[in-house]
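Most newcomers find our protein records easier to grasp once they have seen one. Nothing more is needed to start thinking about how sequence determines fold. Here is such a record, shown just as it appears in the course material:
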Amino acid sequence: MSFVFTPPPAVSLLVRGQDDRFPVHRVYCVGRNYAEHAIEMGHDPDKEPPFFFQKNPDNLVVPELNFPYPPKSNDVHHEIEMVVALHKGGSDIPVAEAMDCVYGYAVSLDMTRRDLQGEMKKLGRPWEIGKAFEKSAPCGEIVPARDIGHPESGAIWLKVNGEIRQEGDLNQMIWKVPEMISYLSGLFELAPGDIIMSGTPAGVGPVQRGDVLHGHIDGIGELVVNVI
């Protein structure tokens, strides 16, 4: 097969303890999946079903790369999240079978041009310009579930320049991992290589050039990103 121009290389993530990398198919993000974050964003967490938006696979950057402050924004926010990486997919996956799809987990950041996202919300338009910009999803190495199991609780936090900004626990997620996989598979046909960014705890806030972001999830790992 030939192409009219050279296609870009496949997007992939590091896997802890392996030379083989995890190829990424799609990136799904769960919105407002921690109650206190939903409240701080002005929403009632008891009234909403889960909802999803997408980033592009090439928005992912590995942790040794920096996060360049994006153009057209003066209010870029950090959101620490647990990534769920799938090695199986399907449609209408029952909750009881959903965890069979999970390959592993990672620490990630959903960087957000909050001012542009806010403008789109007011106009009732999609969020892509606020969420799916270049290098907007720094992501650590994937830790296989066979090595750590399936974390249902544990601290998740983010420090900015050594000071805690976000702090929560995985058990505070409104929609748990098997529920979000099952629900999402009713909307899309999930596939090996899909990843799900599972939502962020309260405390999101702005970053500036020169900031050092240090994220942590118990049992999964660390992520350090420099804002340039």
Notes: The chain has a mean pLDDT of 93.
